[in-house]
Design goal:
The protein has about 130 residues and is an alpha+beta fold. The protein is built from three helices and five strands, in the order βββαββαα.
Length: about 130
């Protein structure tokens, strides 16, 4: 189970985020009224997908004893007719067979964050005073 806490004050649009005992900053670029002091919300979303993709494939390959020595994930988000489109381009490094690469291509479609994004998520919101 994951937990995060985001807090914004009067400084447009700098948001302090805490998760797992670590901190980071989210913000909007100057062109949208922020100061570009941190990642944009969509950059954070893409980062979560990239991290989950890399970690899951590395865990899988390690468990199988496969020679996967590096993973590079490029991610891009666009909107088309009110629908988000995420393009994920993977570069795998190592002396992998065609069968191993094909299996990793199957595995990546079932990573936890991939599945959450594809299936959607219910979001329950409560306002406190």
């Amino acid at each position: 189970m994951a937990h995060a806490h985001a807090r914004i004050g009067t400084e447009n649009f700098k948001t302090e985020i805490e998760a797992g005992g670590r901190a980071l900053i989210a913000d909007e670029p100057e062109s949208l009224g922020g100061k570009g002091a941190g990642f944009t919300p969509y950059e954070l979303l893409l980062s979560a997908l990239g991290a989950c993709s890399s970690i899951t494939l590395k865990m899988y390959a390690d468990r199988k004893g496969w020679p996967l020595t590096g993973i590079d994930v490029q991610l891009h988000h666009t909107k088309t007719d009110d629908r988000s489109v995420i393009t994920r381009t993977m570069t795998l490094t190592g002396d992998l067979s065609d069968d191993q690469r094909a299996r990793l291509a199957e595995v990546i479609e079932r990573t936890p964050v991939t599945r959450t994004l594809k299936e959607g998520a219910d979001i329950a919101t409560t306002f406190l005073s």
